[in-house]
Amino acid sequence: MSKQGKLWELFCVFFRVGLFTFGGGYAMISVVEDACVDRRGWITRSEMDDLVVLAEATPGPIAINCATFVGNRQGGLAGALAATFGMVLPSFLVILLISRVLDCCLEIRLIASAFRGIKLAVGVLILDAARRLLRRRKRSVLWGSIFAASLLLMLAINLFALQLSTVVLMLGAAALSMLAYGIGGAGGGAQ
Amino acid sequence: MILTELFFGFLRVGCFSFGGGYAAVALIRELVLSRGWLSEEMLAYMIAVSESTPGPIMVNLATFVGSTRAGLPGALIASLAVVLPAFVIILLLSAVLKRFMGNPWVSAGMEGLKACISAVILAVGLDMIRSNCIGGGAADWTALLLTLALGFLYFGAGPLFKRKLSPLGLIGISALLGAAVYGI
Known about the structure:
Chain A is mostly helical. Chain A is 84% helix and 0% strand. Chain A is flat and about 60 Å long.
């Protein structure tokens, strides 16, 4: 296949993945696996497993990690760009459209009322996201202390409008955890 | 200038959104509320819209914020910025990272990060519910009751009906409830 043909195929495959993955994240992994491992053999199953672990350990959307990796493997930098661009384009277009019409829609009473209900559901969904992360928690004193301290600090920040950024809090937690490892774990193997 | 602010604001989100879409929601909330780019209400609407439309939630939110602040250029810049870190990391660092991840110092740091993020997301959820139910100083009992009902449906109904409600299902039900309670 010609180079252009390959890039076009990467773009199209990931455009389709981007179009049909709702809610993002883990739902999308199986779609990528089907498209890139089972159907086309673009990457092997063990590469796919590595990719998921890597995506979890790095920031950013998992979908982007997958598209970039497969694109790069199949067509170098141009391939990575084609696949990532294809992946992002559907949601970009949909949201661009919505951003233009949302204000008008909200002037319709029915839609405004529906959104007042939806707003309440979003709080529940965010609690659920926290619950899913907490299910995979590590049962250690350190983990529990960092969690509790972060939660208290976050609630204090929200209630009293303190000037502390979440990123600083996250970096502090990582540093604390590494420090604890350095003191306890590196010498004698804490747990 | 707004485009520069959008770029660096969302680049930061892209760099620190460990732990999936809702970790990014926490960072994006901080960003848009502190800059006054979106109201809490509009952000909640857009989180629901992002859940109901295809694509990663943080790309959806970046596109929306960019578009409402600075039109098409804003949407392009914000989406590019939020995607860029993930793209660069996979392209340049995946070989190095694989070796890195076995390092006990790195996994110690990651554990601390995850503990913190779980707390951050929980706090954002609680704070959103608080501002829904006691927004503007007065308690909104209707909102509180509806939130409890939705929470029960979502978390409690699974064991009852032997089928867990999907996020999309919850959004649908909440829209119907909203329309019924707040008037058509």
